[in-house]
């Protein structure tokens, strides 16, 4: 992968000048490639990683992982059904998996009731959905490689040879 | 008056003038430190995990004086694989408490009173004092910024005397980041060979070499019989606190070092040795990732420093740069003190590594990128405000 993407993925605030120094690529070239990636849909956005567990005034929210068994459609496979499902804004992530079920959804709602209602009223009745299993999420420890804990303080002596 | 109880040898050891500055840093809060001589990464989890497991399994005893056979075997295989260097597990490898102990053992095992040992300046702080404790007379070679802080064959020729026994050599070098290509090393080796001088080669930063392949001194033609190869786990594997290193060399020297080691240390803690086993035998991915990160930071820091007028050579290895503070019209100590007070950024004055380097500071880029960026911004402000 292009180091520019790698560096941006680690820290979206990094400036083209900084990328230029770290990766030894001319600033103009860095800018050009970023633009290109944005246009091609390779760079889709830049955003902060928020540990919501620690946010005091957040609105209440529950998350559930939902396993969905789907009957694939002729010619279209799973894509069409998946699209119908992931277009609901409640669905934060949607994956097609191998194994004993087909789609794995991450669904978010204000409370248990909202999520349950989504499952019983929207998801389950859908044509081609054969069954669902809902797991409510109790605690997040690590997500996308980030451990959801305050960064550990530097334990080294502040100065040494 | 009370008679002093301290031995003469220790009394005459130079007190570290830099201590006062260090205490100042340690007593201050919210400092961004670019003065740290160890990786900012913690030891990779697979290594920590295997040490925990070994403790659960009850590995809590002494080991053989020379170190666990398993670890010596791994070290031997690793050197063979990486450099084609052959050292016998039984009698040519000694596991030590870091490279630090290996330096001490080497000098004590080799030096007779009055023997001369060459130490380059600037250098890692322990060489000259430890050599003197061992009874050596230290011959200093002053390395110049004009030569890129490199040791040249000419420097060497001038420094060698009839009673010169050994040279304490370190590359990639703390504090300058200088390393040597095979060609440069061969030229140095030819001079040493002519005079039959032993090389104690501290290659603890070997994995952090960026611009060319690292060449162990012992792989140079005819050098192996005169070379003591020192390395350890502190830097490449981010294992400073575990205190594991090793010495490899001719059987008679390793045997002599083992003699001292068995009486003074007995053996390296077994849990640290178990961790080191996992470090060499396990995945190399974390080592490579860390190296890549250092390499990028190097480009960043060297670029920023040169832009702000703190001119420096690009280090070929390690995580240090050794810029000149000439532009500030201050010496390194005043520069470091003022920078600390005004901008809360800590760097190490060059005099820590040799009295001749009061025009320099050592900056360590073993610091996360966020902090490094912040520190560079503060230093740039500092330079502008002068
Ligand atoms: C050049 C050099 N040699 C040796 C050491 C000590 O290493 P160890 O932790 O293996 O004792 C250091 C540590 O900073 C160093 O910079």
Describe the model.
The complex is a heterodimer of chains A (161) and B (386). Chain A is α+β, with helices and mostly antiparallel strands and 161 residues long. Chain A has 2 domains: 3-39; 59-139, Alpha-Beta Plaits (2-Layer Sandwich), CATH 3.30.70. Chain A has helices spanning 3-10, 16-23, 27-40, 79-86, 112-123, and strands at 62-70, 91-96, 103-109, 129-136, 142-143, 146-147. In chain A, strands 2-3-1-4 form a 4-stranded antiparallel sheet. A two-stranded antiparallel sheet of chain A has the order 5-6. In chain A, α2 (16-23) crosses α3. The longest helix of chain A is centred in the N-terminal third of the chain and has 14 residues, at 27-40. Chain A is extended, with a radius of gyration of 21 Å. The mean pLDDT of chain A is 93. A 7-stranded mixed sheet of chain B has the order 2-8-7-6-5-3-4, sandwiched between helices. In chain B, α5 (98-110) packs across α6. Chain B is built from 13 helices and 12 strands. Chain B is α/β, with parallel strands linked by helices and 386 residues long. Helices cover 41% and strands 13% of the residues of chain B. Chain B has 2 domains: 8-43 and 285-385, Aspartate Aminotransferase, domain 1 (Alpha-Beta Complex), CATH 3.90.1150; 45-281, 3-Layer(aba) Sandwich (Aspartate Aminotransferase, domain 2), CATH 3.40.640.10. Chain B is globular. In chain B, β3, α6 and β4 (137-142) form a beta-alpha-beta unit. The structure holds pyridoxal-5'-phosphate (PLP). Pyridoxal-5'-phosphate (PLP) binds next to α5 of chain B.
């Amino acid at each position: 992968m292009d180091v520019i993407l790698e560096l941006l993925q680690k820290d979206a605030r990094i400036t083209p000048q900084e990328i230029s120094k770290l990766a030894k690529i001319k600033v103009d070239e860095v800018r050009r490639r970023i633009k290109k990636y944005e246009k091609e849909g390779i760079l889709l956005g830049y955003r902060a990683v928020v540990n919501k567990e620690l946010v005091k005034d957040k609105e209440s929210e529950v998350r559930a992982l939902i396993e969905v068994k789907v009957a694939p459609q002729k010619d279209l496979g799973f894509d069409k059904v998946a699209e119908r499902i992931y277009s609901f804004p409640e669905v934060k992530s949607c994956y097609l998996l191998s194994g004993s079920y087909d789609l794995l959804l991450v669904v978010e709602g204000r409370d248990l009731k909202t999520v349950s209602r989504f499952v019983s009223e929207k998801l389950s009745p859908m044509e081609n959905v054969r069954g669902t299993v809902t797991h409510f999420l109790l605690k997040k420890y690590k997500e996308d490689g980030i451990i959801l804990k305050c960064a550990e303080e530097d334990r080294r002596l502040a100065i040494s040879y | 008056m009370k008679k002093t109880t301290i031995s003469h040898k220790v009394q005459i050891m130079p007190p570290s003038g830099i201590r006062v500055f260090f205490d100042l840093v340690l007593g201050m809060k919210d400092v961004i430190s670019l003065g740290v001589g160890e990786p900012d990464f913690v030891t990779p989890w697979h290594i920590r995990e295997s040490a925990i497991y070994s403790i659960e399994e009850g590995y809590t005893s002494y080991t053989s004086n020379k170190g666990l056979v398993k670890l010596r075997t791994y070290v031997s295989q690793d050197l063979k694989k990486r450099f084609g260097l052959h050292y016998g597990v039984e009698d040519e490898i000694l596991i030590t408490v870091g490279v630090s102990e290996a330096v001490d053992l080497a000098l004590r095992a080799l030096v007779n009173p009055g023997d001369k040992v060459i130490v380059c300046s600037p250098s890692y702080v322990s060489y000259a004092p430890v050599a003197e404790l061992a009874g050596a007379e230290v011959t200093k070679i002053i390395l110049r910024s004009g030569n890129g802080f490199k040791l040249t064959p000419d420097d060497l020729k001038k420094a060698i005397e009839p009673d010169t026994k050994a040279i304490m050599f370190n590359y990639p070098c703390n504090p300058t980041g200088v390393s040597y290509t095979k060609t440069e090393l061969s030229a140095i080796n030819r001079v040493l060979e002519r005079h039959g001088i032993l090389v104690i080669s501290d290659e603890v930063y070997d994995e952090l070499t960026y611009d060319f392949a690292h060449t162990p001194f012992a792989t140079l033609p005819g050098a192996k019989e005169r070379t003591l190869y020192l390395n350890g786990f502190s830097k490449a594997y981010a294992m400073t606190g575990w205190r594991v290193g090793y010495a490899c060399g001719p059987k008679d020297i390793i045997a002599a070092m083992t003699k001292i080691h068995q009486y003074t240390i007995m053996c390296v803690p077994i849990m640290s040795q178990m961790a080191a086993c996992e470090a060499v035998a396990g995945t190399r991915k974390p080592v490579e990732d860390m190296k890549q990160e250092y390499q990028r930071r190097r480009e960043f820091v060297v670029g920023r420093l040169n832009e702000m007028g703190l001119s420096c050579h690009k280090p070929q290895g390690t995580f240090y740069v050794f810029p000149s503070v000439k532009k500030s019209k201050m010496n390194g100590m005043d520069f470091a003190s003022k920078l600390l007070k005004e901008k809360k950024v800590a760097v190490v004055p060059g005099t820590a590594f040799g009295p001749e380097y009061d025009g320099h500071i050592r900056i360590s880029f073993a610091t996360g990128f966020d902090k490094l960026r912040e520190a560079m911004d503060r230093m740039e402000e500092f330079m502008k405000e002068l």
